[in-house]
Amino acid sequence: MEFESHKSIYLQIADNICNQILKGELEQGKRAPSIRNLAVELEVNRNTVMRTFTYLQNENILINKRGVGFFVAEDAIKRILENEKNTFFKTELPYLLERIQLLKLNSSDLQKLITTIKNND
Q: What are phi and psi of 34, to 5 degrees?
């Protein structure tokens, strides 16, 4: 995993875990990787991974079963999609709309985007 400087490492790890859940690489109801193993794999401090897991637990995406470990919540996909949609509409969409206006893009320029959105219906 390549870390970027514009965002905290623990949030980048959280994004990566959420993407794995959405892709089905981490299944709902199944055990999440251990903090120690993930820290070694990503070459980060265990406290950073613990901060990530605490954050995801507060977002109800991971559940901590004491003495057993962390598990992916049964409704994790739903929660991640809700969070990501809210973030998209608050931060990314306004920027995208501004760029569309500045570049004077029209519907034919954006046909691929329109087709993708229609396919999601």
A: -70, 155
Q: State pLDDT tens for residues 69-96.
A: 999 999 999 999 999 999 999 999 999 9
Q: Is the dihedral of CA 2, 49, 23, 56 positive or negative?
A: negative
Q: How distant, in Å, are the alpha carbons of 21, 73, 85, 87, 95 from that of 70?
A: 14, 9, 25, 25, 36
pLDDT in tens, 41-76: 999 999 999 999 999 999 999 999 999 999 999 999
b/e for 88-118, b at 16 or more Cβ within 10 A? eeeeeeeeeeeeeeeeeeeeeeeeeeeeeee
